[in-house]
Queue: 4 jobs
Job 1
Amino acid sequence: MVIARIEPEATHTVIKRVVGTPGDIVCFEPGIVKVNDVQIVEPTYHAEISKDKISTWNLREDEWFLLGDNMAMMDMSIDSRLYGPISRKSIKAKAILVCWPLSRWRILDTE
């Protein structure tokens, strides 16, 4: 998870999952997300995603692909599906801790 400015000219930051890094191929098929031909199995990535079309991004040098948790509703998650890959300079920090809601407090995997 990273903290980034994903929208052009954004004044606020968002927290998103990094699913693609430079050199990766990110592909959306009906109900499936693949990175380098390997399906991502994530409970937050619902079958609603990309239900009608196939989209593919071949990430170039200094391109990062971010996804939000509200993937079932495109208008609920502002991420790389809407704005495309972002550059490394748009990533401001790496998230290491979930502190809200308190019932879900945990340290994130930092690998």
Job 2
Amino acid sequence: MTTTHTYSNATGSYDVLELQKLLENEPCEEVLIADIKGVSKSRRSGFSKHRLLKTDTTFPVILDFDNNLIDGRHRIIKLMAEESLAVLAKRATWEQLQSVKIN
């Protein structure tokens, strides 16, 4: 399996593009940005100011069942800069994550 967008944690690595497809028809919920874990501006983990400027904040972020950020870091950071308190999110269950696990 070849992928260009992954999320990794202590339990493994996951294909974010496949997870986005899987969650496509799932409902969104509004989540307080302060409650989201794992937001970082580290360049080592792919943060880019250029990409931040082009970020579409209307697209929902993806969180796991424990509010860990899987996808959408640039969206959250842009919303924080705009002083927004909440973001639209889709939530992945443990089972959904396991179905897109790479290793």
Job 3
Amino acid sequence: MIAGSQRSSGAPSTRKILVAEDNAALQQILAQQFAHLDVSATIVGNGAEAVAALARESFALVFMDCHMPELDGFAATRAIRDARRRPACTCDHRDDGQRVQGRPRSMSGDRDG
């Protein structure tokens, strides 16, 4: 997991996002890009870590890779949405516009449209 980025002033950004991506090179690129934009990014390596991160804190936006080990982006998104629907959920997540986004990846066998 890569911790949140800092603003050039040293103060953490108030815009927090969560990125679930298993590719270490892409994690580094995304961390640098979000730091450049003064966006605090928490980057995790799989869907299970994303679900756990969302149980601990709120994020303005979630970017989710679709194909990851342990728990893929589709299953993680379902788990996150199911947790938000449960009335006994202790997490502080409201349906206030926060969305889970998938990043499609071309798979062998995919047909060109």
Job 4
Amino acid sequence: MTESLEALGRALFSAVLSDCLDAAGYRSQAMQARIRPLDERLAEIRAVSAADVQRVAASYLPPGKRSVVHVLPGAENDGNGAAAGGAR
């Protein structure tokens, strides 16, 4: 579970950082006259705690409404997207 939360945290950080650096996002903000300094935006990202990530993940990814894909090294593909040996 910790590894998946770390991966979720990295994905969240990457998405927000991408937004911070997105030129179209800056143009949109400039038109609305609300550009904030990058250090201010990064401080907000750094303020996100593990508990915040867990709370949001639990809200958006409840066990009955998520799909989990396990990618295993060395698994042969049958050409139809399924690994040799069938689903697990």
